[in-house]
Protein 1
Amino acid sequence: MIIRASRLTRSYRKTVKAEGLSGSLKSLFHKTTEIVPALGDFDLDLKKGEMLGIIGPNGAGKTTLVKMLSGLMRPDSGELEVLGFKPGERHEAFLSRIALVMGQKSQLWWDLPASDSFLLNKAIYGIPEAKYRRSLKRLASSLEVEGLLGSPVRSLSLGERMKMEFVAAMLHEPDIAFLDEPTIGLDAPAQKRIREFLRMENAERGMTLVLTSHYMDDIRRLCPRTVLILKGRKAYDGDTATLFAGADDSADIADTVERIYGGDA
Amino acid sequence: MSAHNVSRALSAYAAVARSSLADALAWRADAFLGLVMGIVRVALALLLWTAVFDGRAEVGGMSLRMMASYYLIAVFIFQFNQSGLVASSLAAEIRAGLFSKYLARPVDPLAWFLAASAGRSAFQAVAAIVAALAAALACLALDASILAPLDPLGLLAAIPVVLMGMLALALVNFMTGILAFVFQDISSFQVGKDCVIEFLSGALIPVALLPARLRGILSATPFPALASLPADLMLGRGFGGYPGALVCLLLWDFILYLAARALYARLAPRYEEMGS
């Protein structure tokens, strides 16, 4: 197993303020907080080379799960092992073998060409020159961005920028990639190109993929297995085709949940 | 850590410094305006001190000629350090949830910050030296006797002082930047810190003009290394306490490094609570 998670639980502390000016004044002197559960008793096993889709309504706990799997966040309780490491310890050997792409969080230098960010990742991951050139050529060609490598990131369209994020994230050929809504806001051709790219990375390198998305098309076309999270609990874990059986092509997360649970999301 | 890992880490942070330098070059108009403002500041300081001297030969043991030279050097050296700007970017990244890019890659955020600050400061240093030479030539063209000559030995002695002082300030700026893990807006901290450090460094008022007791306290801090100490050395003054100043700076760099590590270890877990 590449991922073993058992009874993972995580909650947040949230500040609560009464409405209006009096509420603001009160909160100056007395801060009230409440504990909000984000994920509870969550189990997950994933084999090498699997492509897992994680779906759920906003606030269900998908991003919390991805953050715990990638080491950005530690669970409050439970056992978690990814690639044989405890992700929260952020061991260098662990971080060198994963990639994290978050739809709205860029790792590229905004005012520099994307190729400068790639060179930086080459140094960070210690990628040998020949391997770097080979990987860059393959990735840029797969994502059709060869002609854009020298353009400042700020001048790229959202879709082009996202493709550059994927190039940056895949240069070191990670064993597992965590993708949190990577196609958000992209047009259909860009989504399709990225899906094809991910399928190829999985087929050619055996890269394991954990993907969250609100676009059911991403999940249905990429992931044979899907986990549905509702209010921080696993509500479904199994075959994607079974989950979407009978649903039409335009079904979104709300349709899917309503069909299975009668709208109890 | 193996030799291979050390070499990889050095190569990675050298790449961060290069990217930061390239990023600074992308904003050369900003840097140019900053330098112009530096020249304006020196010009205004000269006008002010000319009025203060009002025909007197010396003020606080400094002649007008020495004072003009001091300001020219101190103001430009003080401008070298760009870690405050990098700290503002770091704070903005924390607030926007972009700090994840450091956590999800095999990098050390403090080392990244120092490397990025070094890259940005290198660009500013080169530009500031060019601007200082231009300002000096303009001063000499107006009045050949207005500037005191530089001491070559003092110039060499000032280099380690400036580097160690910049490291101390970068560590202070890192600690200010990561306060964003706790506070929504750290700009008031930065403004306060900048005012205090500018005063303590001697970039605002020469340390030599301060009361003896305050001078004694300041000499035990790293801040004069940011302006007054290197300026004095370059003008052939301040050699008396030089070895002690180097030891003091070394100690401060070590203490601030430990403090920055401890503060980061304490505050970074707050990032997990931000939900971004």
Protein 2
Amino acid sequence: MDVFGSFALLLAFVCAAYAIVGGIAAIRTRHPLLIKSARQAGIATCVLIFVATFSLVYLFFSDSYWVAYVVSHGNHSLSTFYKIAALWSGQEGSLLFWSFLLSIYVFSVLIAYRNKNGELMPYVGVVMAGVQIFFLTLNNFVASPFKVLASAGANGALDIFTRADGNGLNPLLQYPEMVIHPPNLYSGYTGFTIPFAFALGALLARYPGEKWIHLTRKWTMIAWCFQTVGILLGAHWAYAVLGWGGYWGWDPVENASLLPWLTGTAFLHSVMMQEKRGMMKVWNVWLVFVTFMLCILGTMLTRSGVVSSVHAFAQSSIGNWFLGFLILILVVCLAAYVKNRDYLKSENQLDSMISRESSFLFNNLILLVSCVAVLSGTLFPVFSEWLSGSRISVGKPFFDKVNIPLGLILLFLTGVGPLLAWRKTSVDSLKRNFGWPLVVGLTAGAVLFALGLREFYSLVCLILCVFVTSTIGMEFFRGARVLKARSGSSLMTSAVDLTMRNTRRYGGYIVHMGMVLIFVGLSGAAFNKDAQKEMQPGSTMTIGRYTLLLQSMDTKPEPNYTSERLIVEVMKDSKPLMMLYPERRYFPANQESGTMVAIYSTLREDLYVVYAGRSPDNEVPVIHTYLNPLVKWIWLGGVVVVLGTFVTLLPNRRAVLALSAVQQPASAPSLSPSLQPQVTLREGHD
Amino acid sequence: MINRRFIAIFNLTCLTGMLALPVAAQIDRAKQIGGKFMCMCNCNQVLTQCNHVGCTVSTAMLKELDQRLARGESETAITQGFVQEFGTQVYAEPPKSGISLVAWSLPSIYLAVGTALVVMVIWRWRARPHLRPAAANMPAGMSADRLEDVRQRVARETED
């Protein structure tokens, strides 16, 4: 099967090469057969990558311990769940997994648009195949996952040998979220290839107007949603597994995932200006380019060892390949832009400073400033070493200080932006839309202050959360009230109906609501408490309203590890509440240990109990306990963001009156053809 | 008798309080100062937050921090001592001096330059005259003002 997989990858490389060469020839000649063959080569590339990926998974399941990658990351006792996760747990496998996910997107695009957009698709196919061939080069010639264990035999031939068992999966990765976090994050990274391919393809093809944006909106939303979920799952994994009581440490790998998310979010907002007003064409194209380049840059940073990270892969020369690819993308994008920039000329015009357009500009500014600040902070240790000879670390305190104010400005814009009118917002409209939310927000702030909340950023954050919630709530309420008056149905039914009539707008509000919940959760971090104590069975420790009684401890052998478990009774306000079982696990296959944190989670706070190990002095168990307020809101917010994204992807439920450009008889028009309102019923977004 | 017992309990409480207060204060200071250093076990975490199983580095560093605090060393002296021992990588946040000032000033520069650019762009775009449609697209018998009115109506009616 290793030979089979290896051969499939090689063949995929050849097919991708043909998809590029044939695609370029098809663009030049416009020959239908060439166009078709290039597309089919693209589809074949994807199928072959699927085959190679399934071959590697099969090698894990068949315990093929003559394949180096299987030996390094698998073993007999791994459960089915983790044998699948082993696929992306190392450098070689994760690169193949990257190719696999990219192929799913490419395959879907090639099939979905096989008979559409004939002008554009050959260009898009070439760009997608170009990205694929880079990863296939790595899969085939730089980091092949199908290398076998072999030594030179006496006769000069290679003797393949088989190990009895593998080293097993890294203990930190043996956690359910690790099975779903990387696929989500990688789906986000790879997903941004599609808008990139359409943007570059449209620029190269001088494809008319906003077509590429309409074509890629759903793909961008899907990639963005995966990226969001991936980031949040990663945060939850860090919270539940690493045992340091936090969920976001501004580690370079975490930062690398945040960078394209920030620019991708900026794009999703600024793209509306192009759709509605034909503005920002150059900006949008470059936002897509930059988002894709940041995906590659992040991968380069974490795989090259340029920056140190607890998550990073071992230092290797593979970073140079990514650097080369990054330079190539930049050169191609610059060349395409310089050559065809006239095509991107747009009617940039603003009527007022207080308008939806201005709010989008400021939204983009804050997202971009945050992105550049995170990037420069992440790279500062490298720069400081180059410039001064000493590496200066930039850790969590720095990133918190820089990004918290930016996040709060963004939160404010989240409430303000959607309620400003396009072109110009009148003073009356401002009063109508923001009067009550402002009053409610400030009242909430006064109440919180009176209750003793003095942490400045948390107070501001919560005031803004209430303000944004009020603005969103009022939007739903006003719309639903109108529908209720017409239909007579309940307010809730009307609100659902309203949402389904304009999924994009109200789905967007739901996404914003999810972000508000996330911010509520983040605001709790200022009030975290922790305590650590050496505890003999029978002893207690107190944190906040909780008292922990260590009842006993036991040892439990499992197929893949041995667990040492503490049995802790939790009492709240002196009344028994529940049992918690923090664990330390020892994995004999790779001689490593890991923690399993025990968490009692409520909307108010998380009681987070870590078995930190035994005291070196007296072998007594040490328990580290954290009381983290509001953390659950972050995960709830993530769920709401996903829900909102799904809603935005749905078609509008009812037919809407739409304006479309159609040819009119010469005698008829009294308006410009482009403005002539035609009552055409269509399903679609506004 | 009651008075004596009360005085004894009171004295004991005061004594305990007097002893406990500096200890509590020292723990708080250790947390505050420890939050400014990185753990040097390569985990990329702040010293007081490093909780890796078997991390002997953070334990030793925290112990050293406690010892220095117990000796009454100032925060500056402790920082200098840690930097001498571990190098500049021990900073959790760059110091606000020398080359590290660049790290602190960059985000403000980005924000200031970006804001200036956005304001300038808005200013320029507002100053632009409304573009008139090309003559070829002008419907017969329709004035430019009427067309602009219709254009605005279309924009209004299609706003989301």
Protein 3
Amino acid sequence: MISFILRRIAYAIPVLLGVAFITLLLFDVASGDPVSIKLGKNPDPVEVEALRIELGLDRPLLGRYFDFLKQIVTLDFGKSWADDTPVREIFKRGVLPTLSLSVPAFLLGGGVSVSVSLLVAFYRGTLLDKVTTAAAIAGISVSSLIYILVGQWLLADQWKLFPIWGYEYGPSAVYFLALPIFIWVLLSVGTDVRYYRTVALEEIRKDYVRTARSKGLAERRILFTHVLKNCSVPIITRLTIAVPFLITGSFLLEIFFGIPGLGSTLLTAITNSDLPVVKAFTILGAVLYVIFNILADVFYAILDPRIRLG
Amino acid sequence: MLLAPLRFAALIALTALALVGCSPDPYPGEEGEILHVGLRLLPKSFDPPDIGEEGSGKVSAPVYEGLLAYHPYARPYQLVPALAESMPVVSEDRMSWTIRLKEGVTFVDDPCFPDGQGREVTAEDVLYAFKRFSHPSTHAKGWWLFDRKVAGLNAWRDGLKADIAAASAAGEPVGPLWGLEREVAGFEVVDRYTFRVNLAEPYPQFAWVLAMSYTFIYPHEAVEHYGEEFRNHPVGTGPYRLKEYNPVYRAVYEPNLEYRENRVPDPRNNPADRLEGWDWEQDERDGYLVNAGAKLPLLDGIETRFILEDQPRWLYFKSGYLDFMNPPKDNTAEAIPMGELSGELKERGVRLYPWTELGTVYSCLNTEDALLSNVGVRRAVALAFDHKWTVDHLYAGQAIVANSLIPPGVAGYADYHPYHSDDGTARYDEARQMLADAGYPDGIDPATGKQLRLRFENSGTSLSARHFAARFVDEMRRIGIEVDVIVNTFPQITEKMRNGSFQVAGLAWGFDYPDAQNIFQLLYSGNADHGSNSANFRDDAFDALYEASSVMEHGPERTAIYEDMAKIVADEVPWITRTHRIRQNLQQPWLEGFKYTETSDNYWHYVGVDAEARRAALTKWNEPVRWPLAVLGGAFAFLIGGTILRSRK
Amino acid sequence: MTSHAANEDAPVTQPPRTPASEAWRRFKRNRSAVVCLAIFTAYFLIALSGQAIELFQGSPFLYDLTLNEMGLDYEEGANAPSTGSWLALFGTTSAGKSVLLRVFHGTKVAFIVGTFGAGLAVIIGMTLGLMAGFMGRWVDEVVQYLYSTIASIPYLLLMLALAFIIRQGPVSAWYQERFFAEYISLGLFNIVLVIGLTSWVTLCRLVRAEVKKVRELEYVQAARALGFSDTRIMFKHVLPNVFHLVIINFSLTFVTAIKSEVILTFLGVGVDREPSWGQMIADAKSELMQGIWWPLAAAGIALFVLTLAVNYVGDALRDALDPRLTE
């Protein structure tokens, strides 16, 4: 096991180096002009040059690449170009709001998806199954933008059930998070239910289920003990892989509902060509993704002893 | 035994319960008379030399004061003393401005002071603020306002730059304000309460500068104590103090109990308040002076939220959660169809205040571009623009066609526009002829045999930006030019303009102060070449007039020169001036004494809120509608229950 | 949508059953899927005819003209749906143009994005997957490295950065010179490239895994022993065995591509010169509050029905093609 993990980490390092390089390449070329952000309406051309040098925009690519690597290792990504706040500060500030939205949404969504999938797997073929599956497919065929636009307009503005926008640190956050969480769950339930349902149905078709049934075991018992246990592997794998995205947050929801989290911070940074922030996000996102992929593999191996770790 | 479905049903029930308890109020648990503001941009800094854009300007306004300020109600705009005791005294030769400060004004209490108590404001503080603003390491965004205008200041600044570079090269420690104590002839402390500015050349616009946020007064203790954090932690003399600040979410203010004696103008009872040129009787009739004579601050607090997206901000206002708003471009047609308040808003008592902006929307043509250096081509493009369409469709009638780059009401406005019609409609035949005369019959480039192509840089992705781009494409097509629209973010378009790598760009300019010099500087050749003159316009006649007028006092002579300059711009077409937008300010019925001012934000000091009226209105306007959820929940429970029962049989 | 296959009573005079025709028969049995396939075909025909009309007519295109310019008599600006003329069936946009025509044009955009975007992604994924799975050794290492790296970068960031680059860079200058630039705008080309370059990873992984299994099949081994070239074996012997994955993935990516167009256009880096569903939905952001709901409804429904149809067909394809799911 240990050697497996070590090997995976060793493999991850060149991947992350590659990501760092691509990040630098991509965002350097794509970015606009940070100088105007910093120097205002009528900047003096000499000042502009000086600032370019200060921000390191005149150094060769390879030099900037090594600087970037150093930043990653020390976790110090410098200061935002928009307002000089240290990037670390920006992250700290945004983490709590994002997690307060994504974690409950994830748990609730996961709970609902798994329950609903088991439910329709149990009652497969009935009207409930058909309606739910149809609803799931219909649900994922609607663009997320429409959910947000209509949801905000209908539930918050027309029916006045929720605040339209905003956030509060502390227990009152519940008022503001209810609608975005609801929409997030709606968005994810469709895909998840289809996936888990397929997984469950595949399990049910296996031989051992037929054997158990012919032995006289109750259907419920089969479903909730044996099948569930065997389904747990893909379910947990899928859930684990979803975790890095909890931290990057749903930028659309955050922007429309005014949750001052990492998602909206990232989008603002992109629009303002705030390179330090964007680069930091990209590389951290990649690191998290890699870590959780390794974790998922580990869980997979633990839960399914048949898998060789070779 | 069916645990999972039951657990699931319980989950649904709990969620529903939680939802039912929710309410739409985004300010839970709030008390007192609070002003609610929504900003459409994130603020960058509370540090005065950096307050160069709307976001920072609006968050700083409640907590700071400058030497002068805009009168909150007079139109045309007028300046009145704020921290100064009276208007500055300008010397005979106009080269020196002497300002006397009010006595006994103190900064707000703050931990940066040795005993936590704010101390008295003196001329030394003005010296510090001005010097810090001019110091090279501050990179003040507004430096161009002092550049080459103050005696000895440029030498002081350049000297510091050189010495700092030398010191760092030698390895010496160089702090942020290294060398600040050096004397500069232009800034003089005459006595404890008197400050004098000695100019390098007459500067008639200087009074406006003293009312801008760049010259807010603050104590050196705050800068020393907070260092980098000073930009999040203001210490000023304004009627409010900053209580809480999250740079990506909101700023909350509470009253400054140490605020100096300052009252809402009361011209009816106090003749000293009757400013020359202010129609106070009209303002009284309009209800602005409802709190006349009351001591500032009037509110228990202010909460400013940064709502970047238009939809939620607009919905907030409609539901009454914002006290005033300039409706977003895309919602103007809904709120103000045909220039009148919509029935819905009128019924609620919302008030509408339109005004023609102090600004100009224009398309900037790069006169150094191969194609556009040909003035005939520029004139042809100008003739093919349909400004009337823009007014009718993009602004729902809420704009006037710009007959000059100067808005009406500002000295220098002249109704001279040879290359666009009186009503703004395009003249395609003339345009085609002009293009042919310029060497491109039917828009075909004789060198390549193909249609001419122009690149149009659009900034922003709003509905109206896209509509305009689409329309521009149509218009140019009619005279034979193909247009490629490039969408840019604001930093991208700024970079292109600075590098001159653009052909046509859609822009707007908002005046920093009501003087035409502010817009003419964008066409002065001294500012070309990576400067603010992005069109790279170089015209000797224009330059000569600019240099002459920049030292003249406001008066008929200068106005005549301004008019000539405007005519040159209209003839040479480095810009196609399009419209002056008519802005609307919408106010909730419970807002008091609020007259929107474009170039300054200190009018917030004079605002009051009728909290009772607000509470009553909100309860009425925002009744939750709960029945649809109940119906949905019921249907779902029915479906599950039915299936469970049926399968049991 | 699952269908249970039980076909022991086949007549004696049936034509030989290839895996493809088997799959097709299974598919046909699923009635809803067949209906969806018909719907998909209808959309395709609309897109095709729209493009044909444009080629024939030249600019300015009908969808860009206001109803008034076309000779009809309507109020300027947005009009609610009315039965006056078939053009106004879904009303007009805030600029006075026919929503119906714009939705039709959006169909063409969606198909180009879907077909070419997903097509590009599928071609890249399939080829790299084949190469990695079959040739092994360093080729496999390189391909795995490539997709691990790309998969680690947050998808949205990658798309946005690529979109900005392609738009501003030399590629766009080259593209403008082509004759077809007038019919397929630069923005559209950008989206196709962006989606193609970012969505190939899943298929690559799947194909690679499957190819590794197929390599060990007897007849493949025989082909190698016979000395056939790698390329020939990959494409003639191995590919047919993994092609079902390619088809299923194509249908999924088609849907993702269309939905990505909506988000990319919303963020301002998508299609701009011509109408698309994404643009109409993005415009709805402000139109909805003005009470103008019909462009959103029209584009939203068009998008919804097509996505639904493709999802259903994709599900049915998976059931029909994936041998493991038949009982």
